[in-house]
Design brief:
Length: 312
């Protein structure tokens, strides 16, 4: 099933099921928000199924009607599960490898996810405005110490995310060892959150095996495939829950989707392309974003993110 949140109805919006063609919606009786359905997922299944059927003849919805599936979430944990991305960064900037056998993950800002067609306000072009195309999962309640195999059963929905980054602010924050605050503003999300079965063969071994296409001002930037994760989402969920419970509505990201075949499939962030240029020619050629630039992302059944960067 495909679920979405309309902007009307307060800060958490109104939960709807979405038709197969993505143009019509129906409310979910008894569950006004996506968070309310996630909190009692098993009990919500009959209402969700009825809404999915009703959506085929339901209310017409335009792209601008949709909020992010979870306009605000209990928790946003972002991984870095694509080894090619990390290898390119380390090579370009002569960084030592990170000595760990565990997945990389940080806790980011979760109280706002930007709607898929809304403008993205940021303070300054001098901050090195960048995008990062990612897949993510939304969990149900996850108990502490869950195994990866068990964690797979707690993945309720899959989403497409643009994790905005301010690259010139990141190095100073990374050196503190405390993680990002200013360098990581609110993320954007595509309109439709989908259940794993909706992806068919595109969901395998806890990975989204689909290309993620990025365009900047209408020009192709990349379409790497999500299957190249070193850790599947079930392993990321288990890592996050090793010493704490995760509440229903936790979102866990894959990190920048990146493939070893970047010469042909491109990238999903500017920083990676700049690293490739530095390795090949000694200096970056691609600039970061300017105000007025439009960034679009799409993959499979998630609908599109299509936004302008604007002065805050």
């Amino acid at each position: 099933m495909r679920l979405a949140t309309l902007k009307r109805g307060g800060r958490d919006g109104t939960l709807v099921a979405v038709s197969r063609d993505g143009t019509r919606v129906a409310p979910v009786t008894g569950f006004p928000t996506l968070q309310s359905a996630l909190d009692t997922w098993d009990a919500a299944q009959d209402a969700l199924a009825a809404a999915v059927e009703a959506a085929e003849t339901g209310e017409a919805a335009a792209a601008e009607d949709f909020a992010a599936p979870l306009p605000r979430a209990w928790q946003w944990l972002d991984g870095s599960a694509f080894p090619t991305h990390g290898d390119l960064m380390q090579t370009a900037f002569n960084l030592p490898p990170i000595e760990t056998t565990k997945p990389l993950m940080y806790q980011g800002m979760s109280h706002r996810f930007i709607a898929p067609t809304d403008d993205v306000p940021l303070p300054s072009e001098a901050d090195g405005i960048d995008f990062e195309g990612e897949f993510g999962v939304v969990t149900g309640d996850v108990q502490m110490g869950v195994s990866p195999a068990e964690a797979l059963d707690h993945i309720r929905l899959i989403v497409l995310i643009n994790d905005w980054s301010l690259r010139t602010l990141a190095p100073a924050e990374m050196k503190t060892g405390f993680g990002w605050v200013q360098a990581k503003p609110a993320c954007s999300a595509a309109p439709f959150a989908v259940t794993p079965d909706e992806l068919g063969e595109g969901w395998a071994d806890g990975r989204v095996c689909l290309p993620l296409t990025v365009e900047v001002d209408g020009q192709w930037f990349g379409h790497p495939n999500g299957r190249a994760m070193a850790y599947g989402f079930h392993e990321l969920v288990a890592h996050a829950a090793a010493t704490r419970e995760l509440p229903a509505g936790t979102i866990i990201g894959s990190g920048t989707v990146s493939n070893a075949e970047h010469a042909t499939v491109g990238s999903t962030c500017i920083s990676e392309r700049r690293a490739i240029e530095m390795i090949a020619g000694g200096k970056p050629e691609t600039g970061f974003l300017r105000f007025g630039t439009r960034v679009a992302m799409r993959a499979g059944p998630f609908g599109a993110i299509d936004q302008r960067v604007v002065q805050a």
